[in-house]
Amino acid sequence: MRHENLRVLHLSLVTHFTLEDGKKTMGMRIGTPMPSLEGATEWFGGTQAHAESEAAGRPTLVHFWSMSCGICKDNMPRITEWRESLKEQGLRVIAVHMPRYEADTDVEGVRMLIANLDMTEPCAIDNEHKIKDAFQNDQGYVPAYYLFDSEGKLRSFAAGERGLDLLKATLDRVMAQGAPAQTA
User: Fold this and answer.
1) Can the peptide bond before residue 35 be classed as cis, meaning omega within 30 degrees of 0?
2) What are the beta bridge partners of residue 44?
3) Please, what is the average pLDDT of the chain?
4) Fewer Cβ within 10 Å of end Cβ, the chain: N or C?
5) Do residues 77 and 164 touch, judged by C-beta distance below 8 A?
6) By mean pLDDT, which of 33-42, 121-130, 170-179 is the weakest?
7) Listing from the earlier edge strand, what are the strands of the sheet with 123-125?
């Protein structure tokens, strides 16, 4: 069946992508340090330095999205809920807008959608796919969710419509461990 050519397998140690020809490509391994956010063509709601500084020593959810992705937009309220309800416990959220089509590279359109979706987290515009490559999102999945613990190590990856559901149990465990005390 053509619509089942690609499956995402969420494993505890490694995230694998199985392609139509049966070959597997490997995504980021669990425990991998959070990659640099270098390479954005533009930032909204902060800068690269601000986003990386906020993430340091705190659990961080990095979510890849695209303005042409309906599922991404449908899932934004849940990300907003997590961002707001878990902020005091240390959770930081970083968005990465990754274009899937030429129309998605319209920076002004992205800016307007960020405002409409009430996205207050720093948002990198990855029009050259440099951040996508750093996160080894080789298939260009959106939505895609990467959860890092307070040590900056990947604890979970999930993608697609049920991605946030798959991530929730790990998010709860990471948040229960707490973020180290921060000095002002």
Assistant:
1) no
2) 123
3) 86
4) C
5) no
6) 170-179
7) 42-44, 123-125, 92-97, 60-65, 144-148, 154-159
CATH number of the domain within which 54 lies: 3.40.30.10
> Does any domain span residue 13?
no
The band of 74, judged by pLDDT with boundaries at 50, 70 and 90, is very high
The answer to whether the CB of 115 falls within 8 A of the CB of 44 is no
Domain count, the chain: 1
pLDDT of residue 181: 52
Tokens 């069946």 correspond to 1
What is the span of the domain harbouring residue 73? Answer: 39-177
Q: Is residue 12 part of a domain?
A: no
In a domain? residue 8: no
Query: For residue 11, what pLDDT is reported?
Result: 35
The CA distance from 155 to 147, in Å, is 6
* DSSP per-residue string spanning the chain: -GGGS-EEE--SSEEEEE-TTS-EEEEEETTPBPPP-TT-SEEESS-HHHHHHHHTTS-EEEEEE-TT-HHHHHHHHHHHHHHHHSTTTT-EEEEEE--SSGGGG-HHHHHHHHHHTT--S-EEE-TT-HHHHHTT-TT--SSEEEEE-TTSBEEEEEESTTHHHHHHHHHHHHHHH-PPPPP-
Whole-angstrom CA distances from 36 to 3, 10, 33, 153 are: 34, 23, 9, 12
Q: Provide the whole-model pTM.
A: 0.84
